[in-house]
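Hi Y.,

Following your request, here is the sequence exactly as I used it, all 225 residues.
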Amino acid sequence: TEILRGGQDKVHEAGAVIVGGHTIIDEELKYGLAVTGRVDPRHILTNASAREGDVLILTKALGTGILATARKNGMLGDSEHAAMIDSMTTLNSIASKAAVELGARCATDVTGFGLLGHASHIAKASQVTLMIRVSEVPALAGARSAWARGARTGGAERNAAYLLSLVDWGDASDEDRALLVDPQTSGGLLIALPALLARDYLSRVPGAVAVGEVRSRASHDIVLT
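Below is the corresponding structure, written out as tokens. Let me know if you'd prefer a different format.
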């Protein structure tokens, strides 16, 4: 009941309604939503429109996969758990609306494939290379320490294997890599927009951080610095 109520509350917060559903009989409890709607074709955010010189902005800190695993294993304190839940229950409505209002054209969500996985989709679709400054990428409280204590996910391992040859890893540590490939539940957005708009966007979206820039196509999809 609480899961259904929570889902409905967030759907209503997003300005939508739940109009149907069906039941899955399985050993594990499952709940999901499929979104049906309409969009003005003049204002679509796609992963295929990043341009050289664009600034890359990440709207939520990373680490929900690591933290959720740590919580399941009794390795996470209540304050870190609360911060994780707060991040996951924050909609991307402010971030997406600000992008559209400022005329941005390129964005992707950051979910199961992790930051680098979804960033690689932008690189491929836009025929560019993304430069990401590792030190600028924000992490949720406790994520790095939870990883250091052994919190691991199968999703992160699969993401890392997929990305191995697509990324110039530079001097990124194992801890950095873990955060960058961590599969996110209800993660934020990665947005590429012209440098002249970046400061305005950052002022409109709480928690948003500039983490890199778009460069001309090179040998790798992503370069870490």
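Residues 34 and 211 are 30 Å apart (CA to CA).

Thanks again,
Q.
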